[in-house]
Amino acid sequence: MPHTAEAPDPLLEWRSEFPTVEATLHFASHTLGAMPRGVEEALRHYAQLWKSRGIRAWEDEWFQLPMETGNLLATIFGATPGTVSMCENVTLAQAVALSAVEFAGPRNRLVCTAEDFPSVLYLYEGLARRGAEVVRVPARAGRHVDTADVLAAVDERTAVVALSHVLFRTAEVVDLAPIVKRAHQAGALVLVDAYQAVGTLPVDVKALDLDLMTGGSVKWLCGGPGAGWLYVSPRVAARLEPALTGWFAHADPFAFDSGPTRRDLGARRFMTGTPGIPGFVAARPGYEIVARIGVPAFREKSLRQTARMIALADEYGFGVVSPREPERRGGTVCLDVPRAGEVCQALLDSDVLLDHRPEVGLRLAPHFYTRDDEVELVMKKVRDEVRRLEKGASA
Ligand SMILES: Cc1ncc(COP(=O)(O)O)c(C=O)c1O
Asked: Which of 223-232, 275-284, 355-364 is the least confident region?
C-alpha cells in the first residue's frame, strides 16, 4: 500500500538531503544516484585542507581516509573492519583481485556469465591472453542466467567463479548461495560484482560466505565517480599476493623499501599507488546516509514501488524485461517500449532522469528518496512519450 498522510513514509525525511530529486524526476539511481547535499561541503573541506595544510594533509586526514572509508562501507554489507580496500572503480578492483590468482596448471579456469558487465568481461579476455581459460556461461531466453548452468560449469579446473549478484541489463538477482557452495566444494574462489546490489539489496558477505566482492559508488550508494572497492575475506586475504600492487600496499609505505614487497595485513594490502582522495571524500556522505538508514528499509520500499511500476507497465501494454518475482528482481524496472532510445532522450530533455540499454529498452529505478506519486508520474510520462512518437510515425 502507498504511504498515506496518516502513515507517512519515513524515508522521505531524507529527501531534503538530495537537491537533485527536487529539481528532476529522478529514476536513474541504477546508473547515477542523486548527489547528497553534504558532498559540496566535503569537497570544500578537501580543498581547504589541501590549501591550508599542504603536505601535512596526508598526516591530518588523507593517509587514513581510504581505510576509514572502507570501514564505513563494511558496515553496509556486514564485513569486518579492515577488509575493504578502496580504489577507483570495479574494473581496477577486479584486476587487483585477479592478479593474485595463478591461472596455471590444471586449475586455470575463470567461470563468468555472458551477462556480467562488459568492462569486467574485457578484463577476463585480457586474462585469457595470460593463461586463464575463460568459461562464459551463456544466458537463456530473456537474458536469464540460470543457476544450474553456472553450477554445471564449475569443477576442479576452476580457479575463480566471477559473476554479478544483480545483472546490470535486466536487474535479475543471481542466487549466490548454491554457486558459492559449489565453488568452495571445487576449491575455487568466488568473486562477486555487487555493484547493482549493494545499496538496494541487503548483502551480507559473511552470510553469503564470499571470498571477494567488488562494487562502486556511482549508483545506489549515491557516492559519485572515483570510489570503487574490493572486499577480501580474512579467510583468504593473507594468501593473496596481487601482482597489480604498489607502495600503498606495503606494510610501511614510507620506508620506501625497494623490495621484496612486505605486504600490509589490512585493507592496504589490496591498494596500489597514491589513492584518489577526492573521489573517496565525495563518496562518504552517501555511504553515511545508506549506513545510517540501513538497506533493508530501501529494499522493502523498492519492492513496493517497482511492483507498482510493473502493474502500470502491464496496464499501458509495455513489455517488462526485469523479473516479475520480487525475490528475483533488483532495484530497476526494465521496460521494452518501441523506440526506447528516442523516448529516453525526449524524457531526459524534460528533466526526467532514466537511461536505456540496447536490447532491453528503458531502465528506471526508484530509490529510497522517491515519492509514490513520482512513480505514477514517471510511468505516465513514458506512456505519453511512447504514444506521441507512435502518433508521429503514423501521421
Ligand atoms: C554490474 C556492474 N559492474 C560494473 C560496472 C562499472 O564498472 P566500473 O566501476 O569499472 O566502471 C557497472 C556499471 O557501470 C555495473 O552495472
From this structure: 355-364
Residue 217 to residues 5, 194, 343: CA-CA distances in angstroms?
A: 33, 11, 27
Same-domain pairing of 260 and 351: no
Tell me, yes or no, whether 169 and 281 share the same domain: yes
* Residue 306 to residue 321: CA distance in whole angstroms: 12
> CB of 193 closer than 6 A to ligand 1?
yes
The average confidence (pLDDT) of the chain is 96
H/E segment holding residue 3: none
Determine the atom of ligand 1 nearest the C-alpha atom of 93.
Answer: 10
Long-range contacts of 304-311 (CB under 8 A, 24+ apart): 304/2, 305/366, 305/370, 305/372, 305/375, 306/331, 306/332, 306/333, 306/366, 308/2, 308/372, 308/375, 308/376, 309/333, 309/364, 309/366, 309/375, 309/379
Question: Span 206-228, mean pLDDT?
Answer: 98
Backbone torsion region of residue 359, taken as left when φ is above 0, otherwise alpha when ψ lies between -120 and 50, otherwise beta: left
Ligand 1 site, residue 77, Cβ cutoff 6 A: no
- Which range among 268-282, 332-346, 381-395 shows the weakest confidence by mean pLDDT? 381-395
With a pLDDT cut of 70, the percent of the chain lying above it is: 98
Give the pTM. Answer: 0.96
Verify whether ligand 1 is closer than 6 Å to residue 228 (CB atom): yes
Specify whether 225 is located in the same domain as 99: yes
- For 272, the grid coordinates are 596500489
- Residue range 23-36: average pLDDT? 97
Share of the chain above pLDDT 90, in %: 95
pLDDT band at 3 (very low <50, low <70, confident <90, very high): low
Residue 309's closest CA among 339, 332, 337, 342? 332
On whether both 319 and 221 belong to a single domain, the answer is no
Give the residue from 247, 272, 292 where a domain finishes.
292
Number of domains in the chain: 2
Identify which of 119, 169, 170 to mutate to test ligand 1's pocket (most ligand atoms within 8 A of the CB). 119
Domain assignment present for 57: no
Could you tell me the residue range of the domain that residue 228 belongs to? Answer: 63-292
Boundary of a domain, candidates 292, 320, 355: 292
pLDDT per position as a tens digit, 304-321? 999 999 999 999 999 999
Interval between CA 174 and ligand 1 midpoint (Å): 16
In a domain, 87, yes or no: yes
